[in-house]
Amino acid sequence: MKAVQLTGHGDRDVIEYDEFPDPEVGRDEVLVDVKAAALNHLDIWTRRGLPGIDLSFPHIPGSDMAGTVAEVGTDVTRFEPGDRVALIAGVAGDDAEGSGASFPRRDDPTLAPDFHIIGEHSRGVHAEYAAVPAANLVPVPDHVDWEVAGSASLVFQTAWRMLIHRAELRAGERVLVHGASGGVGHAAVQIADYAGCEVFATASSEEKLAYAADCGADHGINYEESDFARDVHDLTDGRGVDVVVDHIGEATYDDSLKSLRKGGRFVTCGATTGPNPDAALNRIFWNQLEVIGSTMATPEQAEEALELVWEGVLEPRIRATLPMSESARAHEMIENREGFGKVVVIPDSEL
Asked: Is residue 299 part of a domain?
């Protein structure tokens, strides 16, 4: 089969699309004929090299995909050949390669010491075929386009857990979403709007803010042209927002805390501009702020979010669809913050 491969850690020149051995299907696994997949920021960090994560090269990246079941392992009863499925990439199991591992439905498997993510810590799914644990797949209704099914899971489950389950968002609250043009950002805007909140979105251009408004943002702030903390202060008559959704890190952390009302909640799932800002403990304790971490979602939480996608209530916006052979260009689009929404890649054999 053909697969996207990283030949090592580095710049985009380590990305190749070439022959790779066909995957072997474990007893608890399903072989998926991949129809569409999508990139996330974690693909960039995986390529560059994350501290503490040792990969075997060549490494197939990718944590989002959808396709049809081609084969099932001997112990699999949930699926059969021909079924339409999408990936939920979080794994709580002791097999780092995912072979035979399942996603046990504990209270919260994301807190398990052996939790890992397909594509980031183990072999991913940006290939013509992928063998993954059956417990990491969800059914996809016939009416859902492959590009939607292959791009929704990671960002919508992440944003859903952040807002609904970790920040415990309530109708009528004010929510500030950073990076509203990105995958998690544009999902968070839609979820906050769905929850009945007043949504403040930041982005780097008026065009991206217009897209954010179309996703449900009530207020758009161009962070390239203004101080977003000051704008939030003015727009809320000095009160601040109830919740800040942040995956940016050092560049936004301090002003994010300034944007919160007393007793507000700061929830984060990433740190794309750096992981170690000044903690600002004085502001946290004086204003009695909550700083909340969030990673991926439980299977039940992911399915909650995806049901809303399948129903058309939530929608992954697609900025570009490219053949997998142009994955280096897909990485470039994300690194350069080009466009709004998700970048989808499709096996060249499907085009």
From this structure: no
Does the reported pTM lie above 0.90? yes
Domain end residue (candidates: 260, 293, 326): 293
Nearest-angstrom CA–CA distance, 305 and 156: 6
Number of domains into which the chain is organized: 2
> 3-class SS at 314?
coil
What are the residues facing 16 on neighbouring strands?
5
Task: Kindly indicate the confidence band of residue 96, based on its pLDDT and cuts at 50, 70 and 90.
Answer: very low
pLDDT tens per residue, range 106-156? 468 888 888 899 999 899 999 999 999 999 999 999 999 999 999 999 999
The answer to whether residue 308 is domain-embedded is: no
Q: Which of 191, 81, 63, 189 is nearest to 132 (CA)?
A: 63
Termini Cα distance of the chain: 15
CB 164 within 8 A of CB 136: no
Contact predicate 42/63, CB 8 Å: yes
Q: For residue 203, what are the domain limits?
A: 156-293
Q: Distance of CA 255 to CAs 183, 231, 233, Å?
A: 22, 11, 11
Calpha distance 146→228 (Å, rounded)? 37
Domain CATH for 279: 3.40.50.720
Strands 84-87 and 64-72: antiparallel
How many percent of the chain have pLDDT more than 70? 96
Pure H helices in the chain: 41-48, 146-149, 153-160, 183-194, 206-215, 228-235, 250-259, 281-286, 299-310, 327-335
In a domain, 174, yes or no: yes
pLDDT band for position 193 (cuts 50, 70, 90): very high
Q: Token pair for residue 105? A: 């439905």
Is 240 in contact with 260 (CB distance < 8 Å)?
Answer: yes
- Over residues 286-311, the mean pLDDT reads 96
What pLDDT is stored for residue 170 in this prediction? Answer: 97
